[in-house]
Amino acid sequence: MLSKLSQFKTFLSEVRSEIKKVTFPTRDEVVATTTVVLITSFVFALFLFAADFVIARGYEYIVKVVTG
């Protein structure tokens, strides 16, 4: 069996080889995906605001009709 030190060296060697395979996004890719995330978040925020508004007004109307 390999000693703990030998296993650790093997682990570090494998990590190093895997890190070499990593590619990082370009600045343009980061800007594009960030823009998509911000626009999507804004659209969902508007949708949730509108849905909350409609539900709240509907609830108020139902309460008003039921209570008199």
Provide the fold topology.
Elements: H1 4-19, H2 27-67
What descriptive keywords fit this protein?
elongated, single chain, mainly alpha, 68 residues, 2 helices
Report on this structure.
With 68 residues, the protein is mainly alpha-helical. The protein has helices at residues 4-19, 27-67. The protein is elongated, with a radius of gyration of 28 Å. The model has no long low-confidence stretch (mean pLDDT 95).
Low-confidence stretches: none
Instruction: Quickly give the structural class.
Output: mainly alpha
Helix percent reads over 70%
Q: What order do the SSEs take from the amino end to the carboxyl end, as H and E?
A: HH
Give the DSSP E fraction (strand runs of 2 or more residues).
under 5%
Radius of gyration: 28 Å
The largest sheet, given as strand count, sense and whether it forms a barrel, is: none
> How many individual β-strands?
0
Mean pLDDT: 95
Treating each run of at least 4 consecutive H or I residues as one helix, how many helices? 2
Report the end-to-end length measured between terminal Cα atoms: 83 Å
Q: Tell me, briefly, the overall form.
A: elongated
